[in-house]
Amino acid sequence: MYIGRFLVVGPDTGAYRVSSRSFPNRQIVERDDRFTVVPTDAADKTDNPYVSYNCVRPVGDRIVVGNGSHTDPIAEKLALGYPARDALALSLLALDFEKDDYDTPRIAGVVGPESFIGTVRRDGLVVEEVTEPTLVATYEKDSPEPTEIAIESAAGAANAVYNADFEHAVCAAGVARAGDEFETAIENGD
Predict the structure, then answer these.
(1) 79: how many CB neighbours lie within 10 A of its CB?
(2) Is 190 exposed, middle or buried (0-12, 13-18, 19+ CB in 10 A)?
(3) What is residue 44's DSSP assignment?
(4) Relative to the CA of 96, which of 77, 81, 109, 123 has its CA 20 to 30 Å away?
(5) 124, 114 in Cβ contact below 8 A?
(6) What digits encode the pLDDT tens for the residues 70-114?
(7) Which tens digit of pLDDT belongs to each residue from 107-131?
(8) pTM of the complete model beyond 0.85
(9) 6-187 in CATH: which number?
């Protein structure tokens, strides 16, 4: 089954996977304190605004995971002191679903003292507190739902979502709380 880009958020962990039929030549790279999805050297040139973006951004005792440019405004609102639920809701609502041929939903999560997952689709906005591993995707599974995908460490999270039984894996990132900090990991399928 193809569910597109997806993320899994648990109380102390998170993971994001790029799945793509249209733009498979991408990877996740670390830049300063964040992870960014970028085209590989083998990728065709594109002006598509949804191909490259920050997908992981730490902010104090929280970390944001997301499938697009909304990751940055969520992180910025957290840095200003907004509660995680409000930062997610306001940013997703402001940027709305992607204006592509598929009206692709935007998905994001915040892992921290309280963890949340959210999506904005053509038909609405959903933001929920997370108490167990929860998945949301851009297609087929575009409402948050509990998942059996185990994400107990950053490397384990990246590996688990990359190898999850969904089509067209491209790359993945994982985050996990380690005391007062976060561990992070990248899986580019190398």
Answers:
(1) 13
(2) exposed
(3) P
(4) 81
(5) no
(6) 999 999 999 999 999 999 999 999 999 999 899 999 999 999 999
(7) 999 999 999 999 999 999 999 999 9
(8) yes
(9) 3.60.20.20
